[in-house]
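Possible regression after last week's pipeline update?

I re-ran a chain I had predicted before the update to compare outputs. Posting the input and the new output here so someone can diff against the archived version. Not blocking, just want to make sure nothing changed silently.
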Amino acid sequence: MKSPAKPLILVINPGSTSTKIAVFIEKKCVFESNLAHDSKDLKRLGGIIEQSAFREKLIRAELARHRVTLENLDVIMARGGLLRPLPGGVYAINDRMLADLRGCAFGEHASNLGAILARALAGERKIRICIANPVVVDELAPVARITGLPGVERRSVFHALNQKAVAERAAKKIGRSYRACNLIVAHIGGGISVGVHRRGRVVDVNNALDGEGPFSPERTGALPLLPFLKFIRAQKLDDKQVRTLITRQGGLLAHLGTNDCREILARVKSGDKHAQGVFEAFVYQIAKTIAAGAAVVDGKVDAVALTGNVLKSAWVRQRLVKRIRFLAPVFVMAGSFEMEALAQAGSDVFAGTCRPKKY
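New output (post-update):
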């Protein structure tokens, strides 16, 4: 399947209801599969970590279907989960990392399964198993951590893997290295994160998990605190219900009954004024957050990069670019580049041009 000089790399990217896998020969994709999981099957298994064996079995079957043997793999790269805050980069999967992920020491999320699955599939074989730019990449400037309440600090949780990959591409488009320019990257998907990349470090970014930033297809984004407190009391919501509301039941879904932007756009085109107003506000809040990021680098923005599946909508793209194009050149890279970014990291590890950090 591969030449002796080129590594065979397995990439694993677990999501809440699916597991994406891909096999690369160096940087060339051999195949990519999105293994969908029935929510009822997952619920019967219990928590996220209890899904490991179920997902592992499906991955093994898919590899066998494509005639890929685990013995031939040189590198396994996995999406990083909720770990302690880390600088960006590639990290070798070790026992300490696995213990934190299995124990959900820093939170429970499907991404926690990435390294766990990589370890299980590697078995006792001496192959490289790593993660790259996990969601907890933390390069925040000290001033970005301070809030208006001592004891409550902002923390960095965002789409680090895709943001870093897109930032590298944007830098190349303007003929600069990533570490020599200032970029604003907005990942616009089920969650939305807007990061300010100053010379290779994400020095400010909204926490896409905890409810900061603009509202998304299913997240509330930042809310007026006192009215929200009143709402919680009126609805008699407990902590778990509040978290679910903020992260799964807010945004476009709460306003319009769906988080599918294609369906919303169809309603807008049919003359639904309410849908149009909410969708306009959706774009407006993203644009406002992007523009605010310019202040972090004193207005010296070399480029803005837009990424994520929502950008596949021309309606959203056109309106968003129109609002922010005064800042700097705008590059739209719809979709996600996570699988390619992991494969690139795996190739670099195999070639020895990247030495994995220790967790």
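Follow-up from reviewer: compared with the archived run. The mean pLDDT is 95. Marking as no regression found.
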